Amino acid sequence: MSDWLFFIEVSLAGLGSGALLALAALAFVLIYKATQVVNLAVGELLMLGGYLFFAFAAGWGLPAWAAVPLAVIGGGLVGAVVERGIIRPMLGESAISVFMVTVGLGSVLIGLVELIWTADPRTLPAFISTKPLFLGEAYVSRKIAVAFAVAAVVIGIFLLLFRFWRGGVALRATATDQAAAYSCGINVPGVFSIAWIVGCATAAGAGILLGAIGGISPTMGVFGLSALVVVIVGGLDSILGALVGGLALGLIQSWTGTYLGGEYTNVVTFGILIVALMIRPYGLFGTHEIERL
Amino acid sequence: MFRMTRRAALGAVAGLTLAAGPALAQEEEIVIGASLPLTGVFAFAGVAIESGLNDYITLLNEEGGIDGKPVRLVYEDTGYKVEQSLAVFNKITSSEDVHFYYGDSTGFAKTIGPEIERSGDMVLAGASFATELNDPEIHPHAFITGPDYSEMVEILLEYIAEESPGATVAMINSDTEFGRDPIERTKAKAEELGLDIVLEIVTAPGAVDVSTEVLKLRRSRPDYAIFHGYVLAPLPEFITQAKELGLETQFMGTFWSMDSKQWADVGEAADGYMGVMPYRYYHDTAEDAPMLDKIREMRGVYQHSGYMQGFLSAMLMTEATKRVMASGEELTGDTLKAALNSIQDFDTGGIIGVPISIPGNSVPVGRVYRFDAAAGEMMPVSDWITLGD
After folding, report:
1. Residues B202, B187: one domain?
2. Where would I find the Leucine-binding protein domain in this sequence (chain B) (predicted)?
3. Are residues B159 and B200 in the same domain?
4. What ranges make up the beta strands (E) of B196-302?
5. Which of A65, A120, B53, B278 is the most buried (most CB within 10 A)?
């Protein structure tokens, strides 16, 4: 087998896992873009999505075509409850307070999952074919290919929505200036709710895909840390940044793991984070805010 | 109305103390302390270990305890965090007379090790099978209820060398202290047995997608691949992708990735997965395993392999205590460890299928099992292998 073919295969695998990172990163971006809240519980919401799918597919025996949307809707409902019950009362509080609330939320979600489903690692009922996919001669894991396709479609839809849909424009307006958005008649609290619902539903969807590949456990939320690196590098308020950052990080992790060894993956990942923060603290595609005195 | 003066009150307290004295002596008990991970990443095992420890102690107490003294397990949850584990240790050992302590992790064992050696009061057992703890020179008061991680892999290599002399082997380890543990010894043992290590893969902690690792595997096409440092993920995905690519590699694992039920939940992809297990499984109905019959009487549903580890740990800790008390010596780290090392050809009631001895800090025995998806259970494919025999 030629080294070039191997390199292409490794790169395709990297793009696939990068798409998953991008999808999880999208959940960070959607919420931050509208509410300026860095939701550190995205990883745990992602985990919850995996468990909801497990409950619907394995517990209730529903087919995947029903269990997947139900789990995504379940994630959205959790987002709505969290926003109305916890985040909205925190409006006006310092960013660090809201940030810490999301840290606590993550712990609560882990505790709930352990209470309901125990701490045992589990496997999701198979709903994606395992037959290998070949692009020409290059091998691609079918699950990774599906993750890539789903992430590409979802991110593409969001890019279009933010550009052309009234709700998307309202969200962008709210992100730019909340007071101005209010004065233009935009329902800012409603925008907050929608951002949390859609963000959490996206995280739940990413959790289902992630669970289909690696199984589920209460600790799978650590994946959110890598996604956080993506949004910091790509820009906390940039959907395009999440896409480009996710794919780039996936590629770099894949090359690092293959040619240097898995022990270097985290070193390189978080090294990139530090360098990115030093060079462009607002991210590659993020908004560079300039405060004029 | 009765009015108690200070003198009367002091007298009453003194009288009560004197009266309670003999009663306290009669109720003297043996306390085993434990830092158990009942929540957190290791909770799946911690809960099972706690059940195993408590069940053996219950059985023992029903038969009169040790020399008429009941045994009591005192434990608290640690969340699998070393600092919490240390806090629990300090709390329990400062309020109870503890001579055996069950720790929850390698990190805890290494952190508390110097204190255990300094105090000389107790022996430290636990959930860790770290190779580093299996050195009586450095850790004279440590004890592992089974083979250490290197010994587990060595048991697998002995099996491979017996079944397929000169076979090629891939090592797949997670980039954690747990995962890296047996790497050096694996290489040395493979060379000694004439096996060829053709691939070494280290996966990043928490890695989910393993496509790139499977690609490496496809390039080297080893006869066997030994996982270490994992519980479940990402093993099923690894095996599934390799099978779909037509690889005939035999995948194997060590204790923490060998629970029967977790593979039953994986389904068809788990068929043929092999590994080393130091204890019999809950479902094993071997005739020479009366203790398993008792366990099934107490617990009607499958128990995780961690249960057997906890159960046997309690059995060996209390056996050592019994031996020291029978000799009339004081319970100390030295006497208890000597008593553990005096255990030779000991019948575990079938928890382990052969009589065991504890020559150093570990019990270097194991058996190779293979998962049968049709039966939904791990099935033995080798006899019990005792290293050094």
Report:
1. yes
2. 29-353
3. yes
4. 196-203, 224-228, 250-253, 274-277
5. B278
Distance, CA of A39 to CA of A29 (rounded, Å): 9
- Residues B141 and B153 occupy one common structural domain: no
How do the domains of chain A map onto residue ranges?
7-221
Same domain? For B207 and B298 the reply is no
Residue B53 has pLDDT above 60, yes or no: yes
Partners of B171 on chain A (C-beta within 8 Å) are none
Within 10 Å of residue A255's Cβ, how many Cβ atoms?
A: 17
Distance, CA of B234 to CA of B225 (rounded, Å) = 14
Q: How far is CA B139 from CA B97, B118, B133, in A?
A: 22, 11, 6
Interface of A with B (CB under 8 A): 1, 6, 9-10, 13-14, 16-17, 20, 111, 114, 118-123, 126, 130-132, 139-141, 143-144, 210, 213-215, 217-220, 222-223, 253-254, 257-258, 261-263, 265-266
Query: What's residue B196's pLDDT?
Result: 97
Mark whether B270 and B301 lie in a shared domain. Answer: no
**Domain-embedded: residue B122:** yes
Return contacts of A161-165, CB within 8 angstroms, 24+ apart. A162/A239
Q: What is the pLDDT of residues B224-264, one digit of tens each?
A: 999 999 998 889 989 988 998 889 999 999 999 999 999 99
Q: Read off the CATH number of the domain in which B272 is found.
A: 3.40.50.2300
Say how many C-beta atoms besides its own lie within 10 A of residue A259's C-beta. 11
Work out the percent of chain B whose per-residue pLDDT is above 90: 81
Give me the pLDDT at residue B111, please. Answer: 94
B184: how many CB neighbours lie within 10 A of its CB?
A: 11
Regarding whether B235 and B376 lie in a shared domain, the answer is: yes
Residues B83 and B164 reside in one and the same domain: no
Does some domain include residue B8? no
Total number of domains constituting chain B: 2
**Pair (B226, B304) in one structural domain:** no
Answer for the pair B268, B373: CB distance below 8 angstroms, yes or no: yes
Query: For residues B110 and B160, what is the distance between their CA atoms, to the nearest angstrom?
Result: 32
Domain that holds residue B264: 149-277+367-386
Contacts of B231 in chain A (CB under 8 A): 121
B234 lies in a domain? yes
Q: Which chain B residues are within 8 Å of A228, Cβ to Cβ?
A: none
Nearest CA distance, B266 vs chain A (angstrom): 6
Q: Give CA angle at A254 (A250, A255), nearest 5°.
A: 120
Question: What pLDDT is stored for residue B16 in this prediction?
Answer: 45
Q: Count the alpha carbons within 13 Å of B332 in the hemisphere toward its beta carbon.
A: 10
The whole-angstrom distance between A132's CA and the closest CA on chain B is: 6
Average pLDDT on B57-67 reads: 96
Nearest residue in B to A110, CA atom: B40
Confirm whether B10 is domain-assigned: no
Instruction: Report ipTM (2 d.p.).
Output: 0.79
